[in-house]
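Notes from the 1:1 (GR / supervisor)

We went over the backlog. Supervisor wanted to see one worked example end to end before approving the batch request, so GR pasted a single chain during the call. The sequence is below; no edits were made to it. Supervisor asked that the structure be written out right there so they could see what the output format looks like.
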Amino acid sequence: MTDLLLEHPAMASFLQRALHGDPRSTGNRLIKRWLDQRFAQGVETLADAGPADADRADLAIRTIAIFNLTTGYFTSQRIFASLVEGGGS
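Structure output shown during the call:
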């Protein structure tokens, strides 16, 4: 996911909009299906790396938190640049 966002930073906003947009939209359904697969991979990766008795709900929350941190970094680039340049108030 990070590699994709580094190459295409605007995808972060696109992914967030798809998750919050019309669930009947063909585009949103396709993105949701793709994200569901990525989230499932994330949960499995955390399950493999963590303790054997890890709670699946906890793994899901951790996966979503990582997704939000990652996409949030890219969706916040304008405000970050403004703060670094001293333009934020």
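Supervisor's comment: The chain has one domain: 2-85.
Batch request approved.
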